[in-house]
Amino acid sequence: MTGSDDVLFHIGDHIAYVTLNRPEHGNALTAAMMRRFRDIWTAIGSDPEVRCVLLSASGDRHFCTGADLHDVARTGSVAAGLGPVSQELFLTSRHNGVWKPTVCAVNGLVAGAGLHFVVDADIVVASSAAAFLDSHVNVGMVGAVENVGLAKRLPLGTALRMTLQGRNFRLSAARAHQLGLVEEVVEPMALQQVAEQIAHDISLNSPQAVSLSQQAVWAGLDMGYPAAQEYGYALVRMHWQHPDFGEGPRAFTEGRRPVWTTS
């Protein structure tokens, strides 16, 4: 593990492991942790050996309870300044423009700013003990950026109920799975193993093909269907010139594992 003890980070077998590590404080986010995430995503984005990210949290009660309110009360802010999102938020791959898949392993309660990690993840696996809520309005804050993400991944009424009712509405892991926020619900002891297997499976695939496929799906959320198809096909055509486009079929016909280009 390298860096701050509050956010653990290491790379192994093409997977970047990022772990929130303040279980005694509900894995709440301090300003220092937010800066640390920017450094981590810079490292992930610039390392061609990293093919997938596994985001998890220490402990078994809380995944992330949002911004540390003690920190906010002391500094009077949750961000460094008053700029746009692109200059203020660096918690997730989407905030940092990193197109490498993120598997999010949710071990317990997610609240407030912790929802950033969930709504921006590519695949969410949750412990059966996990739950999701938004408490911004309870503490006099606006629920907006991560809440827009909720409205992309949940029915509008559910996203609004979470946003407006606050901590008195808690979405269980089972219900989150039914509504599509969570891809799979597992027993707590199996969480890390299942999430790591998904990350490992992704890491075996062509990094370039995975990244472009990921971009096509995410971009399609903001486009009409014909425009999304045209954009996706442009990415397909672009990939035809990449070495992996030839390596995949050759490896298949030769009965061997592909050797992907990572640079």
Structure overview:
There is one protein chain. With 263 residues, the chain is α/β, with parallel strands linked by helices. It folds into two domains: 7-203, 2-enoyl-CoA Hydratase, Chain A, domain 1, CATH 3.90.226.10; 207-254. Helix content is 44%, strand content 16%. Strands 1-2-3-5-7-10 form a six-stranded mixed β-sheet, sandwiched between helices. Helix 1 links the parallel strand 2 and strand 3. It is globular and about 60 Å long.
Can you give keywords for this protein?
alpha/beta; 2-enoyl-CoA Hydratase, Chain A, domain 1; 2 domains; four-stranded mixed beta sheet; globular
For CATH, the homologous superfamily of the largest domain is named as: 2-enoyl-CoA Hydratase, Chain A, domain 1
Number of domains as seen in the coordinates: 2
Question: Helix count, per DSSP?
Answer: 12
Our estimate of the beta-strand percent is 15-25%
Task: Give a short overview.
The chain is of the alpha/beta class and 263 residues long. The chain has helices at residues 31-46, 69-75, 85-88, 93-96, 115-119, 145-153, 156-165, 173-179, 191-203, 207-220, 225-239, 243-254, and strands spanning 7-12, 15-20, 52-57, 62-64, 102-106, 109-111, 123-127, 131-133, 171-172, 184-186. 44% of the residues lie in helices and 16% in strands.
Protein topology:
Blueprint: E1 7-12, E2 15-20, H1 31-46, E3 52-57, E4 62-64, H2 69-75, H3 85-88, H4 93-96, E5 102-106, E6 109-111, H5 115-119, E7 123-127, E8 131-133, H6 145-153, H7 156-165, E9 171-172, H8 173-179, E10 184-186, H9 191-203, H10 207-220, H11 225-239, H12 243-254
Parallel strand pairs: 2-3, 3-5, 4-6, 5-7, 6-8, 7-10
Antiparallel strand pairs: 1-2, 8-9
